[in-house]
Design brief:
By secondary structure, the protein is of the alpha/beta class. The protein is built from 7 helices and 5 strands, in the order αββααβαβαβαα. The protein is globular.
Length: 138
């Protein structure tokens, strides 16, 4: 992982940086940008290096399914680390937390809650898609 990608994440106040030949920055909330890339341009994610501010279990599942090469994050949940343990992805981080909290800091992140009991990345994907559908129906 290059320090340049980490610096880009913070200097641009981005939420996600993906490098795979080209370098792309994103500013969405939660897993929205990662999920969109996974669905619309999976080839760009395969073998990519990712720098993300926060990685929970849902993001970890998408990264595993997309077959990224490596990820660095400021904050990672233990649930995400446990899921990454069965993958070949190189993971580095600054801080480990028991779980990701929601934006209002009043409880767990909704996707961390939904994916909590999932055993595989595929199981998590089903929960992520259910959540995104619910959000789009609102």
């Amino acid at each position: 992982m290059t320090d340049d990608l980490i610096k880009l994440l913070h200097s641009g106040n981005h939420s996600l940086v993906v490098a795979n030949g080209d370098v792309c920055t994103f500013n969405g909330h939660g897993v929205s940008d990662l999920y969109s890339l996974f669905k619309e341009d999976p080839g760009f994610l395969k073998g990519a290096s990712i720098v993300d501010k926060i990685v929970g279990k849902a993001a970890a599942a998408l990264m595993i399914l997309a077959e990224i090469k490596e990820v660095h994050t400021d904050v990672i949940s233990q649930l995400a680390l446990d899921l990454f343990a069965g993958s070949k992805i190189s993971v580095s981080y600054v801080t480990v937390v028991p779980h990701i909290i929601n934006r209002t800091q009043t409880g767990w992140c909704p996707l961390e809650t939904r994916c909590h009991d999932c055993q595989t990345p595929q199981d998590c994907l089903c929960r992520i898609e259910e959540f995104i559908k619910l959000q789009s129906d609102k």
